[in-house]
Amino acid sequence: MTKNLVIVESPAKAKTIEGFLGKEYTVKSSYGHVRDLNKNTLSVNIEKDFEPEYEISDDKKALVAELKKLSSQAQTIWLASDEDREGESISWHLYEALDLKHKDTKRIVFHEITKTAILNAIENPRDIDMDLVAAQQARRVLDRLVGYELSPLLWKKVKPSLSAGRVQSVAVRLIVEREEEIKNFQQTSAYRITAQFSFLQDGQEYSIAAEMPNRFDTEAEARAFVESCIGASYKVENIEKKPSSRTPAPPFTTSTLQQEAARKLGFSVANTMRLAQQLYESGKITYMRTDSVNLSSLALGMAKKVITENYGADYVKTRQYHTKTKGAQEAHEAIRPTYLDQNTIKGTADERRLYELIWKRTIASQMSDAQIERTNVNIGISTSDKKFTATGEVILFDGFLKVYMESYDDDEVENGKLKMESSPLSTFNFQLKEGTVLELDKMEAQQRFTRHPLRYTEASLVKKMEELGIGRPSTYAPTISTIQKREYVTKGDIKGTVQAFNVITLKNNKITEKTGKENYGAEKGKLLPTDIGVLVNRFLLQYFESIIDYNFTANVEKEFDKISEGQCEWNKMIREFYAGFHKQVVSTTENSGKFSGEKLLGVDPATGKNVYVKVGRFGPVAQIGDTESEEKPRFAGLRKNQSIETITLEEVLKLFEFPRILGEYEGKEVSVSVGRFGPYVKHANAFYGLAKTDNPATIDIERAIEIIGEKRQKDEENTILTFDNDPEMKVLNGRFGPYIAYKKKNYRIPKDVDPHTLTYEDCLKLVEDAPKTAPKKAAPKRKKNS
DNA sequence: CAGTGAGCGAGCTTCCGCTTGACTT
How far apart are CA A599 and CA A68, in angstroms? Predict the structure, then answer.
């Protein structure tokens, strides 16, 4: 029997807090929300002013029962979920689901997990803020209405099982529109003039690299300029020294951690979050889903001590950062090491690398500015008014740079705005004087091409979404996985193209010209829209532009804020939104036809029939013949790397060349075809995948038989046991170790059993005792071919 | 895993945010 029951959201937090409070307190976790709308129905009663129909989530039933028991025995129940909209709602749902009494219930909040903060919270309890709960309810209901009315519309008009939502559909839109921008990009070029100078000082030769601030648009202008420099002399006209400083980046939030881990360590967003979760659960870092850059006073104190000890007092400058992020709720601290005096930890290599990144960023954020002296040198040309400039940076005091420097995305560097920050700091290690005469070693006019904007990476998409205020720290990673699961977007590489550029060189007063070659536009691990993504986006843009408007979330957030301040009723807001939205859903349902993106490619030379490409029930498909005609059209699915946007008639006709019948083997037909999982050989109702080096268009019967033989041998090697009395029962060795295969289903073998010693009866028993697995969802029904 | 796309109709899919394990073929 406990006197006080404290309920927080996360079990790791519960453990820590229990240590701070005496034994009169039991601390439990709700594991996030305990109630939600039913997944299978709309669960919003439109007639009853949008009343939500909540239920205890299946995986929370046991937990709620336990909490209910504990709370009935406790004198006081402290609801200590996070201090934000969702957290307030979690407390209210707990209050409802546990049947708590008002007089026994206290709502407390804290932003940092420190003893002082917790004790202070206990001293200052309040009631549940029902306005904030209403705002969360509005958010929840709006998302449900949008998601559950738009998705079925897509099933009907575009393709089954698709989805749309306030967040994911905007993420897809960003990726689709970036691709369009790239497609419409008009490349131009200009000539950049650089020069290499040298001079003697105290008997030693120094060299300086300089550049002309302006570029020439045409080759003729560039050449004319270079020619005008034949025989010219060069002189330092003035030198400008400017002190400047640089400040460290704020501590990590979820979004900036994902970005830096991608740039510096090459981690995917999901991988970063998995590792961070590990670090959090083992107590090494603070909570990893946060939009706050705030550090507790305890952390600031620790940082000061660590920096002083390691680098000296000069390097300390503690600061409190403030978020600039739209809609930030700041329920937690920034992501930081729990113990700042540990600059490394035990763990896997990746855990260590992520931890060290967090440690450096946190420490650097509390260190002094770097003091820099920037030197600009103007170099005059005797034959021209134009000038060259050379710049150099000297670090006078490194400050935080001793520990950490933030990285930038390539496009930011390209844009030039971050050039100085990101280029390696160059130094003038000599004293230039005004009037120094410089020797020209070489001058070059090089043709430079403008570059299209870069495609999004996972991390740069998260960054963009955060800027737009779309999605939350807990949903960035899942959203990226959803839009890939729906096949709106794939992750892939773009091959660059080789591009020629001209270079005009002036050396020893002689001009030479040559052509260089450069690989342009190669990109790795980028998010690319698929045909389905493009089509769904076009559909939403045509009929529901307001929902995928980049400002939609920001606008409804303003409404939610009004609700949370008690200035507006949540039902009223939803009522007003739903009136227009639902009308549009109904009119689109009734007035629009199938939205398949059908495109007439041309005419099949063999039959004279029309050839189309479109998005069909199973994805992008090519079609020969008209649907309305007497004769049934022929269909062939597009390959993974093909798109209805770019595929040619020729390529489409090739798709219809399969299946190719190769001949006979063991009295059965051998054919080759291309399926969902790539090219395969089919023989006697069995399938054999082709090797990467095999071409299904040219493969012959001999090679096919070879492939069949190889696969059979491999299966043989993976077979541990077979039984004469029942050929359907097999013990096989698979990816996860030995298992039993029986009647097209697989069963586990207990770890302590040697699979080689199993008898037929043992196997049958294991099959029968296997826990009844829920029928695989969405298992496609298949006709038995007798 | 490896088919599919006439039309019909049954029965399925789906949102965003809060949180962790259970479990894999």
Answer: 60
Mean pLDDT rounded to a whole number for chain A: 90
State how beta strands A76-79 and A4-8 pair: parallel
Please identify which residue in the block is written with the tokens 């025989």.
A231
Assess contact for A421 and A246: CB atoms under 8 A: yes
Per the structure, the residues numbered 312 to 371 in protein chain A that have their CB within 7 angstroms of any atom of strand B are 329
Q: pLDDT by residue (tens digit) across A602-659?
A: 999 999 999 999 999 989 999 999 988 778 899 998 988 899 999 999 999 988 888 8
* Ranges of H-type helices in A434-520: 458-468, 476-485
Question: Which of A466, A447, A446, A448 is CA-nearest to residue A456?
Answer: A466
- Average the pLDDT over A242-256 and give the result: 96
The CA distance from A268 to A274, in Å, is 10
**Beta carbon of A673 within 7 Å of strand B?**
yes
Axis-axis angle for helices A552-564, A570-591 (nearest 10): 150
Q: Is the pLDDT of residue A546 over 90?
A: yes
Q: Which of A145-154, A193-202, A362-371, A681-690 has the lowest mean pLDDT?
A: A681-690
What average pLDDT does the segment A228-256 reach?
95
| Number of other CB atoms surrounding residue A719 within 10 Å | 13
Instruction: Spell out the residues 6+ positions from residue A32 whose beta carbon is closer than 8 angstroms to its own.
Output: A9, A10, A90
- Structure letter (DSSP) for residue A337: B
d(CA A472, CA A253): 11
Specify the amino acid at residue A78.
W
CA A598, A600, A606: angle at the middle one, nearest 5? 130
- Residue closest to B6, CA→C1'? A632
Six-digit token pair at A500? 């020629």
Q: Tell me, what's the pLDDT at A727?
A: 75
Nucleotides of B under 7 A from a protein CB: 1-7, 12-21, 23-25
What 3-state class would DSSP assign to A201? strand
Has residue A784 got a pLDDT over 70? no
Q: How buried is residue A335: exposed, middle or buried, by Cβ count under 10 Å (0-12/13-18/19+)?
A: buried
User: What DSSP state is assigned to residue A285?
Assistant: B
The answer to whether residue A779 scores a pLDDT higher than 70 is no
Structure tokens at A575: 């009522």
Res. A772: pLDDT tops 60? no
**SS3 label, residue A734:** strand
Vertex A715: Cα angle to A712 and A721 (nearest 5): 125
A81 touches strand B (CB under 7 A): no
Q: Give the closest nucleotide to A615 (alpha carbon vs C1').
A: B5
Contact status, residue A393 vs residue A341, Cβ threshold 8 Å: no
Please pick, among A287, A315, A404, A578, the residue that the annotation labels catalytic. A287
Q: What is the rounded average pLDDT of the residues A418-434?
A: 53
